[in-house]
## 1
Amino acid sequence: MTLEQIRRILNCEVLNGNESLDLEVTSGCGADLMSDVLAFARPGTILLTGLTNVQAVRTADVADIRAIVFVRGKLPDRETIELAKARGIPLLATRLTMFEACGRLWAAGLRGDSDSEAAQDAGGVHLHTAV
Amino acid sequence: MPEVSIFTQRFEVRGRDFTSAGRASTAVKEILKEIGIPPATVRRAAIAAYEAEMNVVLYARRGTLELQVSPAEIRLLVQDEGDGIPDIELAMQEGYSTASEEIREMGFGAGMGLPNIRKNSDEFRIESVVGQGTALDIRIRL
């Protein structure tokens, strides 16, 4: 799925990376805790998060995450956008909630990062609990 | 037998400096990419470095992160001055965290940091002295 498709499905504003909307993402990951992202996200995924600080971009950069969608209408500060520009990470923002946004992308065919065995055990739901 | 390191770089990490947090790990990632380490290995080292760097920022007063690269391995040595970890076995459990609400609001404190470091390394040693600090030795084979 391309970033342009995601932009349309989630009715996103593009905060960084207008020129990169033809990039492909191979899966999706929704989380507000960055260590969970570092533990479970695969390279090439798109991160949906309510965390709008600079660490969201650092995490994406470190874990080879292709792009970030900020959910619930939350917008990052200028510093975060500047870092994303410097590191080449597209940023999108949607007013949808995390649940809505993930649900719409799933319905459009995008899948998660659970490995197949874990997904089978859990019936498609991550059983891992992190507090 | 200890390998001769062909590249060493040391980074200072300041506790509670959330603006700079992650800079050392980003630099580690860039260096490893530049010297031609395979992308999957770069990613493992970058994730381990970032989790370790964030631990210093979130929990310690100050620390250092040293990157050593030899023909056989990538080594990350992270040392901090801080409160230390009273029960390392407990801290290594997925989901265990002593993070404050403030740390959780930063997107950390999931209790996955040390387990993530172990998962992304081939050899991982941790030593901690309560009231003094913590030292991590992370090795990733090439």
Note: Residues 29 and 40 of chain A are 8 Å apart (CA to CA).
## 2
Amino acid sequence: MRVLAALSGGVDSAVAAARAVDAGHEVVGVHMALSRTPAAERTGSRGCCSIEDASDARRAADVLGIPFYVWDLSQTFEQTVVADFLAEYAAGRTPNPCVRCNEHVKFATLLDRALDLGFDAVCTGHYARLEHGDDGRATLRRAVCSPKDQSYVLAVSGPQRLAHAMFPLGDVPTKDEVRAEAAARGLRVAAKPDSYDICFVADGDTGGFLRGRLGSRPGDVVDRDGTVLGSHEGAYTFTVGQRRGLHLGRPAPDGRPRYVLGIEPVANTVVVGPIEALAVTAVRAGDVIWFDDVADGARCTAQVRAHGRDVRVRVRLADGLTVVLEDGDQLHGVAAGQSLVLYDGDRVLAQATIEGTTGPGAASGVASSALTAGTAAR
Amino acid sequence: MTSYLDHGAATPVRASALEALVGASATSGNPASVHGAGRAARRLVEDAREQVAAALGARPGEVVWTSGGTESDNLAVLGLYRAARRTDPTRTRLLISAVEHHAVLEPARWLAAHEGAQLTELPVDGDGVLDVDVLNAQLARGGVAAVSVMWANNEVGALQPLEAVVSAAARHGVPVHADAVQAVGQVPVDLASSGLAALSVSGHKVGGPQGTGALLLRRGVALDAVQHGGGQERGLRPGSVAVAPVVGFAVAVAEAVGQQPEQAVRLAALRDELVTRVLATVPAARLTGPSDGPRRLPGNAHLMIDGCSGEDLLLLLDAAGIAASTGSACQAGVARTSHVLAAMGVDEEHSGALRLTLGHTSTRADVEALVDVLPGVVARARNVRQAGAA
């Protein structure tokens, strides 16, 4: 096959490309330039946006002996991933930019251009497994290396697009093994640190980035009764479930920690309260992408945040997609805007975007359209 | 089997230059030393200097060794400007063409940003040729420290009206520098008859070793050094001279200039065939830059192809074994829009630029290979959904 290997400059994508070469594919490397104003050097644990990262990617391609190009996708990235990130926070939700990047950039703009240029597949260093069916649809499974599993952020691309993807690292047992393989292959990115932070937030200060782009917008921090407890510089810098950084002068009367329960973008208030108020019994989601048929009432597991634990749920298909937690399983602080991914064992069944939740206090109204993360906390 | 159609970026090393380079590489003396080993090294360096001077119409004392075109251009632009302004503080203006190579453009902009230079980038016509009337008008305003106009443009191959530039500047006593990196070996280049104050040459564009070059600086022209050290090259470019590379460079310059008359005829014919056949087989492609041969480098063809990107063309040509270029510079590998095409008023939004440059190793088979694959490559590139349309 003719394979386009996306090279971020990190160790995973370099080893993935190397494995594609070993498998006998005709491989061409491409580094996506995603920042309009790339910094010269990598800072902190950001992974792909500096000139140094582009140089690391080029060096890896040269060591592998494959052609290498840099594609400027900064405009697409700004218009989709960054714009969505800002709009979602402004609306009181918690976006996952990695999901949006896979949805709009990697397995959309990049994949389309690759296919148009005559490539058969795009190879990346993601940790997930794919099985390619004859029907032009891929089956997506969790990676063998479960701590690194990225099926949660990949599912948004759906079975048709992922049919053109290749994840050679899906079956490696550990990241250490990838590093050892890189070293053995003479790839000097073997020891490069992992990236964790949001790649376009230069110093890891998401709140500062949001204030810079959205402006300061002071408002009140209130408890569930509406009593004003403090103030904030912008409701959009808070996330449901957050405990630190509330800067409330006085402790709760019972001395227990307070958490963000919800964000009201219109009133510009942040609602705080005790941890039990974050408890969720059902999650409603929209924009569903199905990998397989799932019947109303079916039992499966669900993941509602990156690196989150699976919970057992029952599926309701009455109004969009709702999952109801099975007795004995617990979820706290589920944020609207994050992805809901359903699994049958390690196989992805569906992906959707979380719109709202129901707490234990609510009636059986899981299908109520008024349920947002904010109102659910009242 | 690959076809190399990017001689404008670097042309293969000449066998004679390689032999000279290797032969001189065992030289261990420093040419600045007075002992026997130093004398032996100096002999090689000065032989090379005389060889380059003879080939390019200069006196040996007018040849300053550098590391290549960019260094020569920087030395000329910064050095001429600073020397002129130092002797006459009212001379604060710098005139360059809008289509200069970045090696001229960036030091000129640096002077404007950091040393108070008033920079004027002179317009060109639709073929990329300097408008001499505008130059004349700018010179008439006075206060000009230096003018820099390239001999031939590296992207679209347009030869600049240097005779007119030099005579206009001479009326105002202003020194003129020309970046002749693309011109040597393609068209006659002669410092004495050009009337230029300074002229830049690069080794790897004429079949010499990479990392070599020279600034030809007319005797009596004031120029301030950019780097400072032990006084080599009359203090204009201090640093121990790289003996063996200089020897290889001189052999390459001599051979390129010696073969220039017949190469110009041969390459122009090959280039014309390439252009004619491409325009006949690729719909909505057009030649950029001067269409008549005498106003263009013989080895240069520059095309705009509608409905695709130059980047995609290069990737597909590379996969088909053809080395080509868009002609414009990259920044961290990201293709930048060409300031040359912008100055010419050429739309790059809906067309891809393709620069094909021929040199001393080019053959008819190279042209055949390109003509065979280009129609299919263009059809494929036109099929690509453009990023940003999402």
Note: The two ends of chain A are 55 Å apart (CA to CA).
